[in-house]
Amino acid sequence: xxxxxxxxxxxxxxxxxxxxxCSDEPVVNLDKLTxxxxxxxxxxxxxxxxxxxxxxDIGDRDLVLSLLNEHRPxxxxxxxxxxxxxxxxxxxxxxxxxxxxxxxxxxxxVRAYWTALAGDERTHFRFVHISTDEVYGxxxxxxxxxxxxxxxAPNSPYSASKASADHLVRAYHHTYGLPTLTTNCSNNYGPxxxxxxxxxxxxxxxxxxxPLPIYGDGGNxxxxxxxxxxxxxxxxxxxxxxxxxxxxxxxxxxxxxLNLVRTLCRVLGELKPGCDAESRITxxxxxxxxxxxxxxxxxxxxxxxxxxxxxxFESGIARTVRWYLDNAAWLAAVTSGEYQKWIxxxxxxxxx
Length: 352
Ligand code: NAD
Ligand code: TYD
Prior knowledge:
Layout: E1 2-5, H1 10-22, E2 27-31, E3 51-55, H2 61-71, E4 75-78, H3 85-90, H4 93-115, H5 119-124, E5 126-132, H6 157-176, E6 180-185, E7 188-189, H7 198-208, E8 212-215, E9 221-223, E10 225-226, H8 227-240, E11 246-249, E12 254-256, H9 257-271, E13 281-284, H10 299-305, H11 313-326, H12 328-334, H13 338-346
Parallel strand pairs: 1-2, 1-4, 2-3, 4-5, 5-6, 6-11, 7-10, 8-13
Antiparallel strand pairs: 9-12
Helix pairs in contact: 1-8, 2-4, 4-6, 7-9, 9-11
The chain binds nicotinamide-adenine-dinucleotide (NAD) and thymidine-5'-diphosphate (TYD).
């Protein structure tokens, strides 16, 4: 079996659902259930004995070690993190606690477990750490995409905390020989993404008749990756990646925020006639320290492991919009309560 951390969040839940679609190998899912963790994402596995959910913190070394000794996984996939840049600007402390100190505790527990393994169990063990392209900083227009050899230059408390975690993972490989692999991927989108992030926020506001808030001039560029393609990349890295290596994962889909939101509005209008979200696009105060451009050079994972994305941006967006339209109850459930407090903290009340 494998141990997944953060498996009740957006990418982790998609990963577990995909994993159990592709194989019968059980998954232990350790998740703290922060505001971003949602067991509703895994409702279809409620009576599935292949999924074992444990509520807990990756920073709790004793808990992690006891889970490892009880379930004896052959691999760890670490998704658990505080993941939203804007929240890291309002309150960095949780990012330091989970992404840095928590990753350290997890690594240390895994090292103790792995050190005691022998033979094939020890040789084939893997620790896959999920990171982000944001560790590389911001690109000028026309500059080459991020390669694995780029220096780290994180600009937000979020990306600095992820960069720190990546360094710890690297050090645990270099110093102790722990068989770690790191993936640095671009912006994901798809089903089950919490609507604080750009695409689900715009879909939610588009459907609710609210303004669509674009930071600054809308010219910031991201490289968008459909979450199902990301899950396939992680499975590939787990099975065929070389310990100690890092792999950049991207969608070959660079687009400005403004063009992305316009595309989203068009698709929404096609699938839900009468929904005129584009007329509600509103430019709002820019994010502090807003990185201008991210772009991934994913040639290493294509060349060495044979992975490439299957979805184009158009096909992935159409699937995503359809999912949110078909899952109105999911969206309603996650946009009540605490969510409203976040919206009034981050956006001027008259805008959203
Ligand atoms: P998310 O915020 O949707 O989910 C994070 C999950 O981790 C939640 O279920 C939360 O409850 C859990 N968690 C938080 N702190 C924890 C702790 N201390 N112990 C155990 N569980 C904890 O995030 P996501 O978008 O699914 O991202 C998953 C990973 O992928 C993160 O490491 C993130 O940095 C990385 N990543 C995300 C993107 C993206 O576009 N979403 C892009 C690149 C990399
Ligand atoms: P986001 O989804 O928060 O991902 P990240 O900051 O990790 O790239 O934001 C994607 C882009 O969209 C980023 O350039 C910020 C911008 N953005 C807006 O313009 N308006 C919004 O309300 C949000 C949440 C993001």
